[in-house]
Write a structure and sequence with these properties.
alpha/beta; single chain; 14 helices; Aspartate Aminotransferase, domain 2; Molybdopterin biosynthesis moea protein, domain 2; 458 residues; Aspartate Aminotransferase, domain 1; seven-stranded mixed sheet; four-stranded antiparallel sheet; globular; 12% strand
Length: 458
Amino acid sequence: MKTPIADFVRRYAAGGGARFHMPGHKGRPYLASICTETGRVFSPEALDITEIDGADVLYDAAGIVDESEANATALFGTAHTFYSTEGSTLAIKAMLTLVATALPRGTRPHFLAGRNAHKAFLNGAALLDAEVTWMHADEAAHLCACPLSADDVENAVKRCEKKPHAVYLTSPDYLGNVADIAAIAAVCDAAGLPLLVDNAHGAYLAFLSENRHPIALGATMCADSAHKTLPVLTGGAYLHVAKKASARYLENARHALALHASTSPSYLILQSLDLCNAILADDYAARLAAAEAHVTVTCRVLGAHGYRVAAREPLKLVIDAQKSGYTGEELAKILSQSGVAPEFADRDFLVLMCTPDNSETDFLRLEQALLALPPRAPQESLTPPPVFHPVRVLSVREAMLAPAETVPLSRALGRICASPTVSCPPAVPVVVAGERIDEAALALLAYYGADTVRVVEE
């Protein structure tokens, strides 16, 4: 497969021309003079350019960027796949904007969303002054989880006082739970609603032996963080628009992206997205199958030692730490001492994200570190239930843009949340901007380690 962006930049860098354009380093290996302790150097300057003649323009693409996106479009089977150099955060905001701009002028957008939405969704809702109706899952056992079925979504649509303009889900979620997108998409189609999916953790799902990507299963639009699971530099992401989507979404996608994006996209990230196409078109599917097999074996080995390993998305290894006799933080510390860095850990869970670029040695080191620990009896879970129904006082926009102050939790009861208090990862808010903080919210905030919360000034 051709790699037009990377090819152009390599030719340009090899040409040795005088660069009277951004960036300021002018392609000189300035950073090469800064050595790390290992003696290695970081020197990307020669390949770091701006939107010069021939390099195309990301949000008005008609040249090499458009050609490269066409390659990604063919690989993912979409109407068009658009690049983002600012992660799924940008793609999520663009999805919401596309729904909003397709409405009659003056209509306030209304989204029906799973409660475990990333804070990027809330930021987008604030910018658009969108109304959000939350869907809760009674079986949720963690802040990051909101296991919604097609029936749950159908019932939530029926309960809405006014019809929403789109349904928004996170799948896979941070703990690897995967929604039944096909069934939920059928519900949305029957209701005449677009289904938007935050698929930040699942770009690779399109390349399994059975395509399980949300677009293939019926989603209308989808945001993928390419950098999370594919060999792409951090910040590389996709906005996918399905073939069944409204023509207006396709026509306005670049405008929606540009509305929220920097006017200086990273060409290093664009090159990595471009080169990733060639990798995906080569032997990636076979390598992915091998990685999936590695994860399966590791899960089996750890399970035999007494660890409670959740059977979830194929490349995510999630240990229910408390049911395994430990806390996730304890396990993460042990792994760190063995040179293994997990993705995420809290009291309840340890999350490890795997890809085809994890070697056999990586898996062996992981297994040896965890198998060296003695089995323990399961601990009693002390996790406060994440399902609660706080009172909404202000809209998300009103709360986020209001004068605010940061107060300790001891002074937060009854106050209105101004902006989500949440770390990243997992960036899933306990309390949403505009909601009144009650006892249940305080218990969750304390459990997940928050000491303070930003509230609207009284």
